[in-house]
Amino acid sequence: MPIVRSGADAALPVQLYGLDSRHKHLPEMQKYSGMSCAPLFLPSVGHFYAGMLVSTPIPAGAFTKRVSRRDVWEVLSVRYAGEPFVKVMPLECGQALREGKYLEPQACNRTNRLELFVFGDEAQGLTLVGRLDNLGKGASGNAVQCLNLMLGLPETRGLGKLGSAPNFPDDGS
Questions:
Q1: CATH homologous superfamily for the domain 17-150
Q2: Full-prediction pTM beyond 0.85?
């Protein structure tokens, strides 16, 4: 639930950041993706308690062969099958979009879930979008998940099922 703001900052829009191509996560993204250069990476936040969209556009010319949305979706689906907190969203994801065209950044709030979307077309290029709660999956939930793995505990301990995190506050406090 978003916190209602008043005053001059109440109307701040969703904002992109990391536009200087120096975001702190770019080196690890390049390393683990096997890319020869850092990807274009556009995280966005808004004036609400939690939630974010992270976009990675891939121009069609970046691929060495013709690649479709389905091709990328299948690779992601195979890679993340069985992962407890990652959901690769269906290609036809109209129900996940407000009014069939707007991707809401807060839909994963109060969860340790990451939703992955593949948008675009093979002629122009693709955009990969991750939707997450930047305070849950992006910070505290991720810390708990990593600690569990380091201690040899079940990865999901203390984090609820996919889509739930009952220990997160409702009121933003």
A1: Dihydrodipicolinate Reductase; domain 2 (3.30.360.10)
A2: no
